[in-house]
Design brief:
Elements: E1 3-8, H1 14-29, E2 34-39, H2 50-65, E3 70-80, H3 83-93, E4 98-102, H4 110-115, E5 118-121, H5 129-148
Parallel strand pairs: 1-2, 1-4, 3-4, 3-5
Helix pairs in contact: 1-5, 3-5
Length: 154
């Protein structure tokens, strides 16, 4: 099992970065490789260029994915999972490697959806970009502890 988080943009909130890193370290202490990668965000060329920016970001994402493994897109319209359901899915998603993709402010381009093996939604709410990566890292840690019988999930 290997995990990777691939995000558009760079972190700016130091407290969110610290919290994300704390969960990543916990995952690594359980013997699971975890990598966080970034691709540059694409600035819209104008007020009506959100689609173009998403397409440019998608090209960068697709270049970074590479084999082997599965791609899980984080999307508001994706499937909502309980922590228990996520732990069962993780066994399939993360072998040999699961890459969880978080888009930029305009979301993910359809090109990323087309290659994704699954789409996962954290919530129907709109969440800040930096909070999403914290929640993803925490939920992956929680799922792993459920799989391993570690007394974290209650």
């Amino acid at each position: 099992m290997k995990l990777r988080l691939l995000l558009v943009g760079r972190p700016r909130d130091e407290s969110a970065t610290a919290l994300h890193d704390r969960y990543v370290e916990r995952i690594r202490r359980l013997g699971i490789p975890f990598e966080t990668c970034w691709v540059p965000d694409a600035r819209p060329a104008g007020p009506r260029d959100a689609r173009g920016a998403r397409a440019r970001e998608a090209r960068r994402i697709l270049e970074r994915l590479g084999p082997p493994g599965r791609t899980i897109a984080l999307e508001p319209g994706g499937e909502m999972l309980s922590s228990e359901a996520l732990s069962r899915r993780l066994e399939h998603w993360a072998v040999p490697r699961g890459t969880f993709v978080i888009g930029g402010p305009s979301g993910l381009d359809p090109a990323v959806h087309e290659i994704a093996d699954a789409c996962w939604s954290l919530s129907a709410l709109t969440l800040p970009h930096e909070l999403v990566r914290v929640v993803v890292a925490e939920q992956l840690y929680r799922a792993i502890t459920l799989l391993r019988g570690v007394p974290y999930h209650r």
